[in-house]
Amino acid sequence: MPPAPTGEISQLGTIGVILLLLLFYGGTMWMSVAISRKKENADDYMTAGNKIGFGVSAASMTATWIWASSMYASVTAGYTYGVSGPIHYGLWGALMILFIYPFGKRIRKVAPKAHTLAEVMYARHGRSSQLMLAGSNVLGSVISLTSNFIAGGALIAMLSPMSFGHGIVIIAGGVLLYTLWSGFRASVLTDFAQVMAMLGAAVVIIPAVFFVVGGPSLFVEGAANGNVTPAQESFFSSDAFMNQGAPYIAAVLAYAIGNQTIAQRLFAVREDLIKPTFITATIGYGATVIGIGMLGVMALYLGIEPMNGDVNNLMPQMVGTYLPAALIALAFIMIIGSLSSTADSDLSALSSIVMTDIYGQSVGRAQADPKRMLLIGRITMIVATAAALYFATARFNILDLLVFVGALWGCLVFPVIASFYWKKITNKAFTVSVIAALVVFLPVRFALIPLVGPWALFVELLAIVGVGVVLGIMSFGFFGLRPAVIIGAIATAAVLPFGFGYLRDYETLSGSLVAYSVSFLVCYLMSVRSKQDFDFSVISRITGDFDEEDETAGSVPEGPSPAAEATDAADR
Question: What is the topology of this protein in the membrane according to its UniProt annotation (predicted)?
Answer without folding.
Answer: Multi-pass membrane protein
